[in-house]
Amino acid sequence: MQNLGIAITGSGSEVPATFLDNLGLTELVDTSDEWITTRTGIHQRRLAQPTESLTSLATAAGKKALAAAGIEPQDLDLILLATSTPDDLFGSACKIQAQLGASNAVAFDLTAACSGFVFGLVTAAQYIRTGVYQKVLLIGADILSRWVDWQDRRTCVLFGDGAGAVVLQANSCDRLLGFELKSDGTQNYCLSVAYTPEQTQLVQGINVGKGNFQPIAMNGKEVYRFAVQKVPEIIDKALFRANLSVDDIDWLILHQANQRIIEAVQDRLNIPEHKVITNLAYYGNTSAASIPLALDEAVSQGTIKTGDVIAVSGFGAGLTWGAAIFQWGK
Q1: Beta bridge partners of residue 276, listed in sequence order
Q2: Considering 52, 93, 247, 329, which has the largest number of Cβ atoms within 10 A of its Cβ?
Q3: What angle do CA 294, 327, 104 make, to 5 degrees?
Q4: Residue 225: which region, alpha, beta or left (left: phi > 0; alpha: psi -120 to 50)?
Q5: DSSP symbol at 288
Q6: What's this model's pTM, rounded to 2 decimal places?
Q7: Has 255 been annotated as catalytic?
Q8: What confidence tens digit (pLDDT) does each residue in 50-105 have?
Q9: Set 22, 258, 279, 285: catalytic member
Q10: Cβ(162)–Cβ(297) below 8 Å
Q11: Is 219 a catalytic residue?
Q12: Which member of 190, 255, 258, 279 is catalytic?
């Protein structure tokens, strides 16, 4: 089977209309706009209403990406949904497939938390490079507001909801230039949404666990230390695999977790500020949606142009982290 290259040919995004600014958060917890802005760079975040779903956000983002790429839904071979917050514990990708009318596509969820989009990008590329599939829709989407403790000021100021999507197609020239993925489960405790079972006796001597997931728990200092050390390293490794240097990067798009992390990584890589794309201030940390959301915004504004070299890096729960270097367009 002939190996093929890939091209990323379209993008789309969708966020809820409702937003909560920092002033609104002061009504929930002891905090201030200055405290949040100084420590995170976030001014507001979008929040899904109870009537909104991850499926609807992801479907809307997917439709826009397909339109931008000039692809009909029925021409898709594969739909990958990178998410940690599906509407259904069994997954939401198949429902998105149905709502898109992508009747010929296989669909499944992929979970790697805030690294999900980068892991999904690499996964999609392998299907295309081996000739198995030709057209893939990759969606990164999360509704983290469902799992936030709104009385915990360490975490409730950080997270928002949204969806971003890209279309990947088989291409004669491979535009995915290099990548690197990593995981370290020994640090899983640093960031989690843990299941806590309640013991229920079925019959004498047989118990099962029933319960729910706890709100997001995070050791902020450890996650910061992990990110500022590991992200520059993995971008360097991805650049090495691409046979490129930092100077060859036109745009850097990091997972939008915290402005201080973004600036620390930028400084360690010695990348000038004008090459760094961020929209954290207006959306907060949208997990798997953050990179494609920032990417689509930059493409829509005409900032990113065909042929531009883009370095992306995701990092978060697992702990997982990864980087990819690609050229935009065919």
Answers
A1: 252
A2: 93
A3: 80
A4: alpha
A5: G
A6: 0.96
A7: yes
A8: 999 999 999 999 999 999 999 999 999 999 999 999 999 999 999 999 999 999 99
A9: 285
A10: no
A11: no
A12: 255
